[in-house]
Amino acid sequence: MKNLITRSITGVLFVAVMVTGICLRGDAMILLFALITGLTMWEYTGLVNEVKDVTVNRFISTAAGVYLFLAMAGFCADMVPSAVFIPYLLTIIYLFVSELYTGNKNAINVWAHTMLGQMYVALPFSCINVLAFQHNPADGSVFYNWLMPMSIYIFLWLNDTGAYCSGSLFGKHKLFPRISPAKSWEGSIGGAILVLLSAAIIGYATSQHGLPSPFGEEFSTKLILQWMGLGLTVVFFGTWGDLVESLFKRTLGIKDSGNILPGHGGMLDRFDSSLMAIPAAVVYLYTLSFF
Question: What is the reported pTM?
Fold first, then answer.
């Protein structure tokens, strides 16, 4: 009972912080996700440094990840030129070259785990800026579209809720028993249905109430289908993100990635789904732009 109360309080506070940070204004979102990126990178590097013959430079790897996020935010918001990425590239080169002088027994292991952190954590979080900052076709200016990053997390939360409820009631067929025995096909289908319904509602609301949308504002069946396509993309890749993190933890032999969020584990536990869903949403939006 005590754990349920702790988990509920943490969950409410987490959602409140995320909604406030994303919906308030662009700079608030940048600060929030820069912090999230830093905490997640620090947690990740601490976990992989427990692996034999792996000694990732925690401080520089974390700083590089945060810098990548901030650089991407500045570039997407049209505040800085592309040259802002040069210090990040130099840092990556340093992380490779520095192994010549550390004397680590297995440099390949260190390089692999170092780069995995940048690709698995820093890059996906940085991609949220691509969703958040969009060009106004009328004058070419850039504006902050809070609905896009917020919708990703709404879909992820609803998918988790729908999967838990339908899985608890009807779950019989295991989705991926080798990695996550608790997940079922029935739960996944229930979560997907709830997300598709919410995506259709958001699509309708964007046209009826003037909410910012990358798909246009004129109400049509196509608009609804585009939002539902985004929802389905988040469902698929969010589920894979959850499974990838489960495999990551099983490989390391741990139950939770950390304890920074009481009742919910660590940062990777909380953001595992979005690490796959965010870049997938970016690919989805760019794909639509070609048609």
Answer: 0.93
